[in-house]
Structures are given as structure tokens and as C-alpha cells.
Write a structure and sequence with these properties.
heterodimer, A: 394 residues, mainly beta, 20 strands, 7% helix, elongated, B: 422 residues, 2 domains, 9-stranded antiparallel β-sheet, 6 helices
């Protein structure tokens, strides 16, 4: 058993080591302030959940701060998420493919003062993308081809500490306070084509670097009803996200309003070993769009999804639940005028690595999503895999 | 599962299909600064390098009043060699019978002025000469005291042979020795194995690019064996008269010894044009090093004196003068352009008013950047010189300030508004 855990840990760590820094997964990163990312594990992804209202070891999900109160024992979780994307446009033209991996969640919990203290490192916004522009410029009277290569490399993350406890045998409350961090580098390089006049022309470069600062607070509560239902809700409020330019950056400091995020979720046992879950979230990004200016539009976005978990499946004499689900998510920003959204069909399974007296102490959860994002003429078809390792009682 | 996850570890960044998500387009504009707006204090200095540094020599006769002769000294003729005898054994043959000898001279026909037959002569010099210091007047011209030729122009020579050189028939001339000369050169010292090449036909200038002494001998060990020795020239130089006078105005680059042109630079830090630049970023515009995409010193050719008018490519480069106070022998920085310099073909130099552009982008960027982290200010003086120096007997001439074709500074600037976060 221990060897299986060791193998799993090595697998995750190896994956972490060989992967480049968290890679981008969508061209929608270029829209607005970036593409919101959700810190979900493989189980929540497989069930189409927004991360609230799930029973079991869902206590590590930052969207459900009250859930950790039910963990009782120390634990931790790491999540890796590769994806493969094909971008196309309805107006025609060739499609583009890209892929990347990121690590949206690292979480830990430890019993403290009658409850559970938690620590979360989570991804919030992905901003990585690049683009090119081909132009013809005049070099000493001769037209010369040039390429403007733009690259934006950045992301926003949070580091949060939290605390949750049961206030009644069936009701738990929790909160977490986090700090936004991260940075973005925006650089534009104009390269001149080779020519007699351009042979000695040096590239032009313009760039800027900003670091992100801000705070967020998440509160939540959950309750078990009649022993077969779990209901939960949470809300996240943030200060403005401040982007502070470095001393070498000519560009200005900026601040962006971050929306209040509201989430509700519920799950229930339809039959022994069969779980139904549903959840939704809502956030109003219109104030952020106002701060972005330049005609960028955004409003309230709704995300909802649900799924089924068949928990009675066993593989190699270990608990290996199967999951399917569906989810639809509005994207706050689009690459063109109009709304954008993401829709996925999900599936996955879990595998208990260490199970003692029907208590799973170590498990892998795998979620696989087949989905598409639509926004204006842009369409992204993608596969997204989520692999998470949970350890309890160490 | 591991295979699935690792498969996405090679990151490919999302790339847009158009430029709709890119920040505003930079503006690239070209402009020219007049001489008075960027330079001053033009000076021309001569005397850099030695004639014998060149890999070619010159002969000329009454070419726009210029005379030039080539002096050459050969290595010793072998006295013995290994020969395979009739039994097939390699043995040293020290009883060689020299039957023929001649000097072969290679001519750069493209860089020579003659298109028809000209006559060349080879004579044995009778006076000691120093390849490093010999000139038209002196055979030796060192600090210890000059030793003049008995007759200016290489003294008296013993005529050995002539050759009618026809460039349409080949690119070499041969001067055949008689048996007495062969014997004398075989036994003589270095001073004996020296000669002077003269051009006997008026009105031409020839560029010589190599000389060797070819000696043919029969072996005493095997009469059927003919041995051919190529004896290389160990020293070569040329002497000419009159030397080029310093220019009254304008720029001069090249020659042997070489000419350099030096100028002081003072670049503006703000610009009020051109309109395209002002429209893009507003004027006055604070010019910074990051804006300089290209900077080139544009010169306009003028004809050199005919005797020194290039018939071959002149490579030029620009270097910063590191210590202006020690001009003309001031140390120079590295070339601001390519290592081999900017080649200027002779046909460009033959047309008055042709433009050439010497890249100095790196220098202009450094000038605008100001002192380096150690507090050293950038050089404010530039030298324009041949690359390498000297590389040609002829020199290039250019119009100087105050004339219609004065030098200008070509600038290509690329400017964009500051990068903003969105």
C-alpha cells in the first residue's frame, strides 16, 4: 500500500517537475483582465461542480470553506491540470492548436482549536497569450517587412488561510482570508525583415511589468439534512486588484474591481452509493470592465453544473467511484463584442490508494472534460484533464 | 493517466489569429539630420600603417603624374632535394643542374587600369633596401638616419628581363633569367635575390598581387627527373611619387599609408519632427536609445585625384575615438559595423555624388544612453577608416560639410506609447 502511495506521489511530483511554469490554456486569456480559473480537484471537475456542496473529502476546495470542518484529520491535496485546445474562427482560416499544464490548487488542512485550519494556494486568473502583426515600414525610403510580436505572460493567484468548525452536529461554518499575488509582463518586439537597409536595423522593444496585490475574504456554511443531503453556500469578496508597475515600467499603475462571487451547491444520495450533485455560482464583472475601459464589456456571469457519482464501484478491491456531469459557465470577457461561454461534458473516476476500515486515506481523482468555448467568431474545442492527489491522516 | 498528463507538458502559448488583442502599433519613421545638427570639427589625418602591410603592390608610370615601382625579395634557392633514383630509392641530390629560372608576377587585372598590352620590366636592385621603410627617396628611412637611393625611385638596377603583359591573355607576367643570373642568384645573399618591377608604358597603374621565383633543375641522380621549385617572395613593397597631398576639405579614407577622417558628434536629445513622428507621439519628442532602430552616417562620394582613384573595392568602418586628446594616434574602439567593414565598390566611387551609408546604430544608442554604470561618458568623436588599414593604395573621397553633398545622419526611429497593462 505504501508503495502505491509512493508511486502516486512520485508521479505527481514528477509531473510537477517536468512541466513548465503554469501554462496558459485558452486564447480567452487575452480578453479583459484574463480568464478566471477555478481551483477544483478531479472529483469536482468530473461532477461538473463549481466546488461547493460536495460531501466526502471536498474540504480542501477553497470555494467551500466550511467543508474542511468535517475533515477531522490533517490532510493535503495537489492538483495538476493539462489541457489540449483547438482554436478556430467561424469566418474561416486555419485552426490553431495549443496545450499547457497548470497547477490550480495546492491545499492543506490541520486540526486546530476544535476545528480545522487550512491553507490554499490557488490560481485566479490566467493572462498568458501572444499575437503577431505583420506590417510594412519605411526604412530610409525602402519598404521593409516587419513583424510585431506581442507576448503577455502573467497570472493572478491567491494564498489564503482559513478556519472552519462544526457549530452544530450538522452545520459547519468557515472562512478564509487570502492575498492576491502574481505579475504580468507585456512585451512588444518589432523585428525587421532581412534586407540591405534592414540588415543593420535592430529590433524595437517596448515592455512593462506589473505586480498584483489585493485581498479577498471567503465565508461559507454547509449543513447536512436528513443524513442524505448536503447543502452549502459561500461568498467571496475582494478588494480591488492593484497592478503596480515596476520602476522600469513607463506604463501606469492600475486597479481593477474584483466581483463578489456567490456560490450555492447541494448533493444528495439518490440510492445507496449513488450521489447527485448540483451547484451554481454568480459574479458581476461589470465594475471590472469599467476599470478596463476601451469599450470592454462584461456583466453578470452564471455558472452551473451537476453530476452523478456511483460510489459503489470497486477496482482491485478498492473504492473506485465513477462520475459523470455537465457544466456551463459564462465567461466574463470575450475576445469580441458579445457574450462568451464555456460548456463541458465531464467524466472521471477516483481510486483509493489507501483505504482503512472504509476510510480513504489517500486517493487519486481524475476528471476529464470535453468542452468548447464560444465568443463571437472564436471557438475553442478542448480536452481538459484534472488529476488530484489527496492525502489524509499523515 | 501519467501519459495523459505528461503529454501536455510541452507548453504552447495561445496565439491569436489576428492582431485584435495587441497593443497599439509602433511607428517607424526615417529622418535625416544635417551635418550641423549632429557633427562638427571634421579632420583628416594620414600616415596610418605601412605600405608593406598591404598584400598587394602597385606599379605605375606617368599615371596622372604618379610613378610607382615594386620591390621584391625572394627566399633562397634550394641547393639540394630528395630525388628517387633509378632503383626507386629516395636520396639527397645536392648536385642539381639549374636549367631555367623566371619570376612570375600575378596581376589583378580588374583593379588595373590597362585594357591593352603594357610592358613590364624586372631588374636586380643594386642597393640595400628596407622593406618596412623604403620610399621613393630613401632605400632605408629609419630613426637611425635615412639612406637615400643613389637615384630616387629605387636606385640603379641591373635589367634582367621585360614582359609584354596582355590582360586578355592571362593574369601573370614572367621574367626569364639567363644562366649567369641563375648562378648568381643561386649563390648570392638575400640582397642579391632582390629586384624591382617597373612599368615601362606611360599612363597606367597596375595592381600586383603576388610574385614567386620559379626555378627548374635536372637531377644528377636521374637525368629523366625534372625538378621545379617555387621560391616565394619573402618581402615586397612599393615606392611611389608623389605622395598624395592632404585634402583641403572633405573626407578621405584609405590609401597606403592610410588616411582617416575624424569628426566630433553631438546628437540632439529632443526632436521636433518629422510630422509622422510628432503625430504618433507628440513633439518635442525626447529621443532615447530604445527608439533608435537604425543610424547610419551617409556620405556622398567625390572623385579622388586620378592617380589615387580606386579601381578596387574600399572597405570602410567607423570606430569611436577613445582618447581624443591623443589624436591623430588616438586609440580606437571596436568597429561599429560589421567586422569586415562596409564594402564600397569602385564603380560607386567613380560617380560623384553617390551615397554610401555607414551603420553606427550601436554608437548612437550608446550616445543617447549617456554614461555607463561605471560613470564613463560615451565617446564623442568618431573615426572613419579603411578596414583593414591599409587595404588599398587608392583612397575614397567624400564631400565635407558646407557643400551641397555634405554628410548627413540617417536615423530610423521606432516609437510607441508606453506599454500599459491594458
Amino acid at each position: 500500500m505504501k508503495s502505491m502511495i509512493r508511486v502516486a506521489l512520485l508521479g505527481i511530483c514528477g509531473f510537477t517537475a517536468v512541466a513548465a511554469p503554469a501554462g496558459a490554456q485558452s486564447l480567452f486569456n487575452a480578453a479583459g483582465i484574463g480568464l478566471p480559473m477555478e481551483a477544483l480537484d478531479g472529483r469536482a471537475r468530473a461532477l461538473g461542480s463549481v466546488g461547493v456542496g460536495l460531501p466526502g473529502t471536498a474540504g480542501f476546495l477553497p470555494a467551500d470553506p466550511a467543508a474542511s470542518a468535517r475533515l477531522l484529520v490533517p490532510g493535503g491535496m495537489i492538483v495538476a491540470q493539462p489541457s489540449w485546445v483547438e482554436l478556430s474562427r467561424s469566418g474561416g482560416g486555419s485552426s490553431r492548436n495549443f496545450r499547457g499544464s497548470r497547477f490550480p490548487l495546492l491545499a492543506a488542512g490541520y486540526p486546530f482549536a476544535g476545528g480545522m485550519a487550512s491553507l490554499h494556494a490557488t490560481s485566479v486568473l490566467d493572462q498568458q497569450f501572444r499575437g503577431e502583426r505583420r506590417v510594412t515600414v519605411d526604412l530610409l525610403g525602402a519598404p521593409v517587412e516587419a513583424v510585431d510580436a506581442f507576448e503577455q505572460d502573467g497570472s493572478v493567484a491567491t494564498l489564503a488561510v482559513g478556519y472552519a468548525r462544526m457549530i452544530t452536529p450538522t452545520v459547519a461554518v468557515g472562512l478564509s482570508a487570502g492575498r492576491y499575488s502574481g505579475s504580468v509582463v507585456r512585451s512588444l518586439v518589432r523585428q525587421f525583415a532581412d534586407s540591405a537597409a534592414a540588415g543593420a536595423a535592430v529590433p524595437y522593444a517596448s515592455s512593462g511589468t506589473w505586480s498584483y496585490h489585493g485581498y479577498q475574504l471567503t465565508v461559507g456554511a454547509s449543513a447536512d439534512v436528513a443524513g442524505i443531503f448536503r447543502i452549502a453556500a459561500s461568498a467571496t469578496a475582494s478588494t480591488e486588484l492593484d497592478a503596480v508597475a515596476t520602476s522600469q515600467t513607463e506604463g501606469a499603475d492600475r486597479s481593477f474591481a474584483m466581483p463578489l462571487q456567490l456560490r450555492v451547491g447541494a448533493s444528495g444520495q439518490l440510492a445507496p452509493g449513488l450521489l447527485l450533485s448540483a451547484s451554481a455560482s454568480m459574479a458581476d464583472w461589470s465594475s471590472t470592465a469599467d476599470d478596463l475601459g476601451a469599450g470592454i464589456e462584461a456583466g453578470s456571469v452564471l455558472s452551473f453544473g451537476g453530476g452523478l457519482e456511483l460510489a459503489s464501484v470497486r477496482l482491485f478491491n478498492r473504492s473506485s467511484p465513477l462520475r459523470v456531469g455537465f457544466r456551463r459557465t459564462d465567461l466574463p470577457f470575450s475576445l469580441e463584442a458579445g457574450d462568451a461561454n464555456e460548456q463541458v461534458f465531464t467524466g472521471g473516476f477516483g481510486f483509493a490508494l489507501n483505504e482503512t476500515n472504509e476510510v480513504v486515506l489517500a486517493s487519486l481523482d481524475f476528471g476529464l472534460e470535453k468542452g468548447r468555448r464560444l465568443g463571437g467568431t472564436y471557438r475553442e474545442d478542448f480536452w481538459r484533464a484534472t488529476l488530484s492527489l489527496k492525502l489524509l491522516g499523515f | 493517466m501519467g501519459v495523459v498528463t505528461v503529454a501536455a507538458c510541452t507548453e504552447t502559448m495561445p496565439t491569436g489569429t489576428d492582431d485584435s488583442q495587441l497593443p497599439g502599433e509602433p511607428v517607424t519613421v526615417s529622418l535625416q539630420l544635417a551635418w550641423d545638427d549632429f557633427a562638427s570639427n571634421l579632420q583628416v589625418f594620414g600616415g596610418f600603417g605601412r605600405v608593406d602591410d598591404m598584400e598587394s603592390t602597385v606599379v605605375a608610370r606617368a599615371y596622372d603624374g604618379m610613378e610607382s615601382r615594386t620591390l621584391v625579395r625572394f627566399n633562397a634557392i634550394p641547393r639540394s632535394t630528395l630525388v628517387r633514383d633509378s632503383t626507386g630509392t629516395l636520396r639527397t641530390d645536392s648536385a642539381l643542374t639549374f636549367v631555367d629560372a623566371y619570376v612570375v608576377v600575378l596581376v589583378d587585372t580588374a583593379a588595373s587600369t590597362n585594357t591593352g598590352v603594357v610592358q613590364l620590366a624586372f631588374g636586380q636592385t643594386q642597393e640595400m633596401w628596407d622593406t618596412r621603410t623604403a620610399n621613393w627617396t630613401n632605400a632605408v628611412d629609419t630613426i637611425g638616419g635615412p639612406v637615400p637611393w643613389s637615384t630616387p625611385g629605387g636606385g640603379v638596377v641591373t635589367p634582367l628581363a621585360t614582359w609584354d603583359f596582355d590582360p586578355s591573355a592571362g593574369d601573370s607576367a614572367q621574367f626569364f633569367f639567363d644562366s649567369a643570373t641563375i648562378a648568381q642568384w643561386r649563390e648570392g645573399s638575400d640582397s642579391v635575390r632582390a629586384g624591382r618591377i617597373d612599368l615601362l608604358t606611360d599612363g597606367h597603374r597596375l595592381k600586383l598581387v603576388g610574385a614567386a621565383l620559379r626555378v627548374i633543375a635536372n637531377s644528377a641522380l636521374d637525368q629523366d627527373t625534372v625538378l621545379i621549385f617555387d621560391v616565394p617572395a619573402t618581402q615586397a613593397t612599393f615606392i611611389y611619387d608623389p605622395p598624395a597631398a592632404a585634402p583641403l576639405d572633405g573626407l578621405r579614407v584609405g590609401g597606403s599609408p592610410a588616411w582617416r577622417t575624424v569628426l566630433d558628434v553631438a546628437l540632439p536629445t529632443t526632436l521636433d519632427g518629422p510630422p509622422a513622428l510628432c503625430a504618433a507621439v507628440g513633439c518635442p519628442f525626447a529621443l532615447g536609445p530604445q527608439h533608435v532602430t537604425y543610424a547610419g552616417l551617409e556620405l556622398r562620394t567625390r572623385l579622388s585625384p586620378t592617380a589615387f582613384q580606386p579601381t578596387d573595392t574600399v572597405s570602410m568602418e567607423v570606430r569611436p575615438v577613445l582618447d581624443k586628446a591623443t589624436l591623430p594616434k588616438a586609440p580606437l574602439g571596436t568597429s561599429l559595423g560589421t567586422a569586415e567593414g562596409t564594402p564600397v565598390p569602385p564603380e560607386v566611387l567613380l560617380v560623384e555624388g553617390s551615397t554610401i551609408d555607414l551603420p553606427i546604430t550601436r554608437y548612437v544608442q550608446g550616445f543617447l544612453a549617456g554614461p555607463d554604470p561605471e560613470g564613463r561618458a560615451p565617446p564623442t568623436t568618431l573615426a572613419i577608416l579603411a578596414a583593414p588599414e591599409p587595404n588599398t593604395f587608392t583612397f575614397a573621397s567624400f564631400f565635407g560639410p558646407g557643400a551641397a553633398n555634405a554628410p548627413v545622419l540617417n536615423l530610423v526611429l521606432t516609437v510607441s506609447p508606453p506599454m500599459e497593462i491594458r
